[in-house]
Amino acid sequence: MALHEGKQPAPHGGMNPLYVDNPALAAGVTLPHTRLGDDPLPADTALRLVRDELMLDGNARLNLATFVTTWMEPEADRLMAECVDKNMIDKDEYPQTAELERRCVTILADLWNAPDPTAVMGCSTTGSSEACMLAGMAFKRRWSKLGRTGRPNLVMGANVQVCWEKFCEYWEVEPRLVPMDGDRFHLTADEAVARCDENTIGVVAILGSTFDGSYEPVAEITAALDALQERTGLDIPVHVDGASGAMIAPFLDPDLVWDFRLPRVASINTSGHKYGLVYPGVGWAIWRDKAALPEELVFNVNYLGGDMPTFALNFSRPGAEVAAQYYTFVRLGRDGFRAVQQASRDVATYLATGIEALGPFTLLTRGDQLPVFAFTVKPDAGYTVFDVSRRLRERGWLVPAYTFPENRTDLAVLRIVVRNGFTRDLADLLLADLGRAVSEGIVTAPASGTAFHH
Questions:
Q1: CA distance 411 to 364
Q2: Which InterPro entries match (predicted)?
Q3: Of the residues 138, 148, 326, 420, which has the maximum number of CB atoms within 10 A of its CB?
Q4: Lowest mean pLDDT: which of 50-54, 135-139, 163-167, 354-358?
């Protein structure tokens, strides 16, 4: 029989039949984009196809934009897999998971120098954004009990995380944002007090600005508010947004007074999934005592067979992250946390010094508070921070470039976040790639040629 002449259609719809376990499936495998497919696929085939698409994501370990943990030990991975099916809200059915949450709250209260760590009010959340919403709600409810009739306002720097602006919009609170000015990139005591009045529900101080990694002067802010109360009688509480810094300062800056040692600090939050060293999905909100959290905001819910207090915006969520947070506390202890955070700070300061030495860059911060620093390009460099970011992306590095908020929109910077797992060796590789780009005299992508080689 003569062979058919000419081009034949690709067998199995173009899918290599060796790539899926059942070649008969290959002809019809199309991943759903807008509607469910008609037929199921074997688990390993579905896994393979979805993994293929996810290869287009960036490498999380090379993502120097995110504060979120991108590496945990295999033991933590296994523990989380064992707990992912436990509903955190069902404290009656999973009492030991609830106990681990309680222990974490007490451990954090002790770490943040609460007068009585066993008397604090606190809970886990899905992250710092939820924790900040809860703190803002407590502020507003406390203020409403004072019988004031004006519009409530919240004082904070323009460098706050967007969740605070969301809180103000959602709960109808006026955001009084202190703009950046010159070389002042965050809130100061004088600027905070100047915006306070009888309708101020609280002041937010940031322990670790996401813009440049710097600490705001919490003690100075509370002292200025103490003086304001002496003059006017206004008693305005402070919330410390320690999304990152509340898990750095206790270990690396123990003499820095920013926490519950200051009586005016009513509440603190942190992200367990940032420098708490846990994968995404856990934050913590803690109030110094019951008086700081209006009791009507705490609900006693009869759910799945038990009566339990709850104060959260979310309800059902996995217990895996709480278990992982407790594992991390057990695994590291104070000395272990100190060693991990010091290693991150050492790499950050080393990298900042190396970048400064290249010549075209000016540091705004040096990574000696949060292991985070920002830098900009000198005016005569011939390229922008956005060019630098694009060029580094060619090698897989994700380094964000952005402009500062209103009043300093003229300033555009790059920011590097050093996390656990980002080693000095990786820092040297980044410095080499950045130095190579600088030595070529351009940092923008070439007009032609291949940008990436295996």
A1: 11
A2: Glutamate_decarboxylase, PyrdxlP-dep_de-COase, PyrdxlP-dep_Trfase, PyrdxlP-dep_Trfase_major
A3: 138
A4: 50-54
What is the percent of the chain with per-residue pLDDT over 70, rounded to a whole number? 89
Q: How would you classify the pairing of strands 412-417 and 372-377?
A: antiparallel
Distance CA 223, CA 201 (A): 17
**Any idea where the domains of the chain sit in the sequence?**
74-329, 333-439
| Band of residue 445 on the pLDDT scale cut at 50, 70, 90 | very low
CATH class of 74-329: alpha beta
CB-count exposure of residue 260 (10 Å: 0-12, 13-18, 19+): buried
Amino acid at 170: Y
> Distance between CA 57 and CA 396 in Å, rounded?
10
Q: Which class is 333-439 in CATH?
A: alpha beta
CA 149 to CA 163: how far, in whole Å? Answer: 26
CA distance 192 to 209: 16
Q: How far apart are the first and last CA of the chain?
A: 45
Where does residue 213 rank: exposed (0-12), middle (13-18), buried (19+ CB within 10 A)?
Answer: buried
pLDDT of residue 307: 59
Per-residue pLDDT tens digits for 348-405: 999 999 999 999 999 999 999 999 999 999 999 999 999 999 999 999 999 999 999 9
Order of strands across the sheet with 238-241?
121-125, 283-287, 265-271, 238-241, 200-206, 153-157, 174-178
Overall pTM > 0.85: yes
- Give the model confidence (pLDDT) of 48-63 as tens digits: 889 989 999 988 889 9
